[in-house]
Amino acid sequence: MSAVISPVLLAQAPESGYDFEAFDSPEGWAMAYTLASALNLGSGPAEHRGVFTWKLEAELASIPHLSQEQQRVGFGGFKPEDMNKSPVFGRARLSVALPAAVTAELSWTPPLEIDGAKPESLFGLALERELVSVGSWRLGGRLHAVRGHASADVTCSRDVASNAPGSASNPFGCSGPSVDRLRMNQQGAEVMLSRSMFDGRLQPFVAYATTHFRPFVEVEAPLFDSLHYWELQSSGTVDTFTLGARVAITPVWQSSVAFSYTPLSVIRPRVDNRQHDDFWSLRISVARLSPLR
After folding, report:
1. Does the residue 2 lie in any domain?
2. Which one of 129, 163, 250, 287 is at 20 to 30 Å from 13 when CA atoms are compared?
3. 1 part of a folded domain
4. What is the pLDDT of residues 152-166, one digit of tens each?
5. Does pLDDT of 9 surpass 70?
6. Residue 271 forms part of a structural domain
7. What is the CATH number of the domain that holds 29?
8. What is the DSSP letter of 174?
9. pTM of the model
10. From CA 277, how far away is CA 36, in angstroms rounded?
11. φ, ψ for residue 89 (rounded to 5)?
């Protein structure tokens, strides 16, 4: 999307359009940052369980608060957007042990609306397996994917649109809340190295994941006296590094905590060189395993 910095020019801008954004552009970075909040990473090492036994898990992950300057991503990095919606991302996971020591996992994010943001039919799929076992050390692999959407009033938030279009608090002329819909397509692979300690009750682990993002955004924003419709798309691959631990509380209850770091770079119009505005997240989960037989 072209860099439009004047409300007058914005009012004269085309009412519809499509742009493919570079992954390190302000818009591309914003899409990647949002998709990083929904990464379908493992909550711990791959497990040996009886065939068709199950595990039900609830996970909550933090989403960092962005500064006003970091949220200046619209129109090539000149227009502030309301990216600070929910401070957390949650999902439920159901995994089932299959033959050949493979575990299949289905995850789902409930469609709960927080500050105008709402996930829509957001599901994850994963397959994981232990690859190598040497003494107390384990190396596992995981294939993961996420499909679904999220909607929010990012381009024109309710707070901004409540001010007069063209005023100091609403310089870009939002005459009502926008409808921004993000397609959160991603898929990738993860490897995890873990060690079993205290008879398996504690399993610290480190992991590395590579994930391909292909976000697509539909923006419907009322600006001044007309409704503007844009489509934005981007594509790129991110790396994620994780440090965590899983604890067996009882034979059927587990808990895990993990800190994940995803480097993201962005080229902003006011800066001559590339910046790093990375995504980090603290993830906590509690799981219930099928009863022992």
Report:
1. no
2. 163
3. no
4. 999 999 999 999 998
5. no
6. yes
7. 2.40.128
8. B
9. 0.91
10. 12
11. -130, 130
